[in-house]
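F.,

This is the one I mentioned.
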């Protein structure tokens, strides 16, 4: 379950950033998780509940933004919603696409006090 290592990395980021800001409390953390990021949301939530105990994030409000897939066709430059990574361009039918949204996995913001 790589979701636990993802959560542990988020905890590490939060600790480092709160130290930089001389903050002892993180009120809110906002995380972007794309639908193609390979993070299984239920496993992530379970790992989060267990891993944040007795850390700076234990009482933090967690906001998760679920980013939908979006692609750009490398043939006709059309941008379109992407449900599956193997979907073809709806305009020209080409399969050569660039995924421009949906692979995100990042800490977007921290609110500290």
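My design for it:
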């Amino acid at each position: 379950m790589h979701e636990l290592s993802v959560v542990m990395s988020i905890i590490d980021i939060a600790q480092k950033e709160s130290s930089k800001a001389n903050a002892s409390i993180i009120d809110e953390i906002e995380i972007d998780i794309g639908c193609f990021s390979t993070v299984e949301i239920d496993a992530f939530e379970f790992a989060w509940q267990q891993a944040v105990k007795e850390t700076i994030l234990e009482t933090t409000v967690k906001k998760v933004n679920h980013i939908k897939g979006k692609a750009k066709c490398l043939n006709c430059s059309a941008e379109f919603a992407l449900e599956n990574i193997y979907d073809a361009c709806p305009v020209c039918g080409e399969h050569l696409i660039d995924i421009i949204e949906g692979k995100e996995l990042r800490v977007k913001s921290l609110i500290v006090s």
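The mean pLDDT is 96.

Talk soon.
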